[in-house]
Specification:
heterotrimer, A mainly alpha, B mainly alpha, C alpha+beta, A: mainly alpha, MetI-like fold, 10 helices, elongated, B: mainly alpha, 12 helices
Chain lengths: 276, 307, 481
């Protein structure tokens, strides 16, 4: 597959998924929270295309509304991480010295810290909630962007055009924002695309472990967790939310691969954020 | 070169201490009292006070912290509150299971991914390449908390080929290791393929071939050696992700490892046990990365020179 | 792994915390402790105390109980169980230095005398009608009663052979058990946290007995297997919604009654629990000696809406709730599902519910400190009706007792105080019947149901009887064909 095709396929997939989430009220046969106790674990087909869950709620409706949670959490987490990471990385890269040393140490500690535990602990304190998920993912997610931004700024810091700007009396903030950051843009964009995919999986993982979306929110991870005891008699509870998540991640992965090749970016990591 | 790992180890001490401090701080910010959770409904306040004193939980936080670090430095992690046993013993009971699972997953991922990645790179654009790339994409996209139940459903429930769960012989290891390995394997295949492709384009490989080295030798010795550097580095970085994966995999397959243990320990507010677990996990992560570093330098001696 | 021949494999969902009767507080610990240890008395399914180590007992006066021991019980190491062991165990638990969670239960005890090897005399500081409830304490050998570490040597039908934490416990018959050593050898307890796995292993024969009921659909699936048999018995675990009466809205009886009427208890029991529970009218199950029938509240959303309007919360049209309540629950799947169902039921009468899921430690801390509006909780192992005093007397707000919702009623106070000072069973019964009627009217909590006990086991297992409290005692006399 060529990179251009990958980008097109990825963007198209994302648009479809976003539209499905936006149009959920019109596409879904019932609300995502409408119980029908008598029709518990109803099989797929008929009025309920993807079947019914443990309280008889429509699985299609829940998968569609789940899109909003998955995309929303991922966007928020990546946005926060990207902003924080870029700022910190630029500061460290430009300032150098002990500032840089301190940031590197903090990143080392965070990388060695089992981040999943942070999410579990947050959920223990405040009860599981989506803001907690975003917070937990961002507290650990910013390090990747910080490293990329820092490396980019450091490699460009000594170039002539920077020296020229400095000689003209430009302040560091302006130099970084006007001259250095735009050059680091592509690498951050590619990392953010993979980061979105990672954040979606991470949100699902946390909800699966019961420390993500609180009930009755139809997070895909939570739906899989809920359906697991019924795998033998109602596999549709596990299969469909999993497929939805896999498709969303696939779209982002294709987009990321394509962008990386088109923009000729090299990442040092694997381009995947996990809740660790 | 010999002193470098040693120096790195010294540099890692602050990292480990940082992790320990972080854990200690956030644990004590959690609401809920281990003593009340342990004693349950049927306890009097006086007993709770006595037990809290017994466990040293009534002292100032700073004193508790100093005591914990001091004891930990001597290898004494204290007494687990929930299990009523030394933390070291509780962890020693569970840690091998996680190590076993992680090593199996690692072998599976590396053993499958590197050859596939090399073959895909060598036969770039052919059918095998396409299949491998598609499969690796699937590996990256399928979340483990979905893959685990689905593998269990297919191979243990429907086909009845493998045990459903628990720790036992080799057969018990297959499904959890595969679940844990697939995501990592997908990443490694893509990485190996990309690095081999890049290396094949490098001058020295082209030179080697021009000098008459056979194709397999050019790929096997020169390209692969170079390609392994990023693979090993990423493996080290993925060690952290492995733990998150282990919590999920251990939960799905009822694997008695440290991932599930630490979750239980947090829920019971078993401070000493959580601290011990996180310390062990942090040290493991640091050790793996140091090992990966040493390995990278061994593969590519040029990197041994300090920059 | 193939189960050992002649051995039985039982699945537990989690590790028992302690098998030492001095420290054991969790349900799984109690189920196993029951097999390893003997106590002076035990509770029968109706909540009455029946003989075990004590063959009989007499009340000399209101403050003196004399126990006559059976001479034929022996610990697993062969030494006889004597009055000295009983005294040593009770004294150890009462020693503050040991910090035993059971100490409070023995607060009424002052001195223990042992005139001979088979007689124990307990002197109480105060007359207490519920004292015998505390004599379910497992007895340890006197020489080991004060050890700080867990002691598992007991005189029960089984002895502990080995423990692999998080994986399995192996028990073997106590050869000295006076009623004949058990025939199950070994008895293996496997720790299998995942329900799907427990169900599958049971179906395949890797597990022989499952006592934690799986989801109803899985019970049906298991029942279809020719090698398995599903056993049902009514249970005594009481599930309810706790309400915090400190909240001005919930202080109004009409609001509480409206909530009780809005929850479709019968629908939940029928469909979500697969019929495996009895809709409850109150704390005590019908088989309990002090149970008094109270009229059940049927699902009636229309009446609930009328009550809410009368209480000053008029309907505000579709989409706009009358008011919002926070509902706290543990993360257990069934409880989470219950929360979602209650949320939908209350939305139907115009009350918006925000569900907050906490793991047990946090939920427990919040409930104890009164930091909740609604919460789903359960009472497990209720034996003496004095619990009505501990849970509903106005002085029993935590940390003194379990009146978490801060319910205050002069009538209930008077009755529950009288109940704990009355020794005549008939008289006590009359008192607690009035307590139950009062609570049914005041609705300080919303009773939901008593959970059934469901056990699924291989047909080869003979002589096992599921018990209402979930104990495994009948394994002492069961066998595997």
């Amino acid at each position: 597959m060529t990179s251009r095709l990958g980008v097109v396929a990825g963007v198209a997939g994302l648009i479809v998924i976003a539209l499905a989430g936006a149009a959920a009220p019109w596409l879904a046969p019932t609300g995502p929270y409408t119980p029908d106790l008598g029709a518990r674990l109803g099989a797929p087909g008929g009025a309920h295309l993807l079947g019914q869950d443990t309280l008889g709620r429509d699985v299609l409706a829940r998968v569609l509304y789940g899109t909003r949670i998955s995309l929303g959490v991922a966007t928020a987490a990546v946005g926060l991480s990207l902003a924080a990471g870029t700022v910190l990385g630029c500061v460290a890269g430009y300032a150098g010295g002990w500032v840089d040393e301190a940031l590197t140490r903090v990143i080392d500690v965070l990388l060695a810290f089992p981040g999943l535990l942070l999410a579990i602990a947050l959920a223990a304190v405040r009860g599981p909630s989506l803001p907690n998920v975003v917070l937990a993912l961002s507290v650990l997610g910013w390090t990747g962007y910080a490293r990329l931004a820092r490396a980019a700024v450091m490699s460009l810091r000594e170039r002539e055009f920077v020296a020229a700007a400095r000689a003209l009396g430009a302040r560091p903030v302006r130099i970084v924002a006007r001259h250095l950051l735009p050059l680091a843009g592509p690498v951050l964009l590619v990392q953010a695309t993979f980061g979105m995919a990672g954040a979606m999986v991470a949100e699902g993982s946390l909800s699966f472990l019961g420390v993500g979306a609180p009930p009755p929110l139809p997070s895909w991870g939570a739906m899989i967790d809920e359906g697991r005891p019924f795998l033998l008699v109602a596999p549709h509870l596990v299969v469909f939310p999993g497929l939805a998540l896999a498709l969303a991640v696939l779209a982002l992965q294709l987009l990321g691969d394509g962008l990386r090749d088109l923009l000729d970016v090299r990442l040092d990591g694997a381009g995947r954020m996990t809740p660790s | 070169m010999g002193t470098l790992p040693g120096r790195r180890l010294v540099l890692l001490l602050p990292t480990v201490l940082g992790v320990v401090t972080l854990v200690f701080a956030f644990l004590h910010l959690l609401p809920g009292d281990p003593v009340e959770i342990m004693l349950g409904d049927w306890a009097a306040p006086a007993d709770a006070v006595a037990l809290r004193r017994d466990l040293g939980l009534d002292r100032p936080l700073a004193a508790q912290y100093v005591r914990f670090v001091g004891h930990a430095a001597r290898g004494d992690f204290g007494q687990s509150i929930a299990f009523r046993a030394p933390v070291a013993r509780v962890i020693a009971d569970r840690y091998p299971a996680t190590v076993e699972l992680a090593i199996a997953a690692l072998l599976l991922a590396v053993g499958g991914a590197v050859p596939l990645g090399v073959l895909a790179a060598v036969w770039r654009g052919r059918a095998l390449d396409r299949i491998v790339r598609l499969a690796s994409l699937a590996g990256v996209c399928l979340p483990s908390f979905w893959l685990g139940p689905v593998l269990m459903f297919a191979f243990a429930m429907r086909l009845d080929w493998l045990p459903v769960s628990g720790r036992g012989g080799l057969a018990h290891l297959v499904l959890p290791a595969a679940t844990l390995a697939l995501g990592m394997g997908g990443i490694l295949v893509r990485l190996t393929r990309a690095s081999v492709l890049a290396a094949l384009g490098e001058d020295y490989v082209r030179t080697a071939r021009a000098k008459g080295a056979p194709r397999w030798r050019a790929v096997g010795v020169h390209a692969l050696r170079n390609a392994l550097v990023p693979v090993v580095t990423v493996l080290g970085l993925q060690a952290g992700a492995l733990l998150a994966g282990a919590v999920i995999t251990e939960t799905i397959f009822a694997w008695p490892g440290i991932g599930r243990l630490v979750v239980q320990a947090i829920q019971a507010r078993d401070y000493p046990l959580v601290q011990g677990c996180v310390l062990v996990i942090g040290v493991t992560y640091v050790a793996i990365n140091t090992a990966a570093d040493v390995l990278v330098r061994a593969i590519d001696p040029r990197l041994a020179e300090p920059a | 792994m193939a189960p050992p021949p002649g051995g039985l494999v039982v699945a537990f969902d989690s590790d028992p915390r302690s098998l030492d009767p001095r420290f054991q507080t969790d349900a799984n610990g109690a189920r196993l402790g029951d097999l390893l240890h003997v106590a002076l008395t035990r509770a029968d399914p109706t909540g009455r105390r029946v003989p075990e180590l004590a063959r009989s007992w007499t009340m000399e006066d209101r403050r003196t109980v004399v126990f006559h021991l059976r001479p034929d019980f022996r610990f697993a190491d062969g030494t006889a169980v004597t009055a000295a062991d009983v005294k040593a165990t009770y004294d150890a638990v009462r020693d503050p230095a040991l910090a035993s969670p059971k100490r409070t239960a023995l607060a009424a005890l002052s001195v223990i005398d042992t005139p001979d090897a088979t007689t124990v005399v307990m002197h109480l500081t105060d007359a207490s009608a519920s004292f015998l409830d505390a004599t379910g304490l497992g007895i340890l050998p006197a020489a080991r009663a004060r050890e700080a570490d867990d002691v598992t040597t007991g005189a029960g039908p089984f002895r502990l052979v080995s423990v692999v934490r998080g994986d399995r416990l192996v028990l073997a018959p106590n050869p000295y058990y006076p009623d004949g050593p058990p025939r199950l050898d070994p008895l293996v307890i496997r720790i299998v946290p995942d329900e799907t796995v427990r169900v599958l292993e049971l179906r395949r024969g890797g597990i022989h007995l499952l006592e934690d009921a799986p989801e109803p659909e899985m019970v049906t699936w298991l029942a279809a297997a020719p090698t398995l048999v599903v056993r049902r018995a009514p249970g005594t675990s009481f599930v309810y919604l706790a309400l915090n009466l400190r909240d001005p809205r919930l202080a109004d009886r009409r609001v509480r009654e409206a909530i009780a009427l809005a929850v479709d208890r019968d629908g939940l029991v029928r469909y979500v629990l697969g019929g495996a529970a009895r809709p409850a009218t109150g704390l005590l199950a019908p088989e309990h000696w002090a149970y008094a029938p109270a009229p059940a509240r049927r699902h009636d959303p229309r009446r609930a809406r009328r009550l809410l309007a009368r209480a000053g919360y008029p309907s505000r049209g579709r989409g706009t709730p009358r008011f919002r309540l926070v509902y706290k629950t543990s993360a257990q799947p069934l409880r989470r599902r219950l929360a979602e169902a209650v949320q939908a039921d209350l939305a139907n009468v115009g009350i918006a519910v925000d569900v907050r899921v906490y793991e047990w430690g946090t939920l427990y801390a919040d409930v104890r400190s009164g930091n909740f509006e609604m919460a789903s909780l359960a009472w497990v192992g209720v034996t003496d009706p004095d619990l009505y005093y501990l849970a509903f007397h106005s002085t029993m707000v935590p940390p003194a007792g379990y009146n978490r919702g801060a319910y205050v009623s002069r009538v209930t106070d008077r009755l529950t105080s009288a109940g704990r000072r009355t020794f005549d069973p008939l008289e006590r019964r009359t008192i607690y019947a009035r307590v139950q009627r009062r609570l049914a009217h005041d609705v300080p909590i919303v009773p939901l149901w008593w959970e059934d006990r469901i056990a699924v086991h291989t047909r080869r297992l003979r002589g096992f009887e599921p018990s209402p409290s979930g104990d495994l005692r009948s394994l002492a006399t069961a066998r595997l064909d």
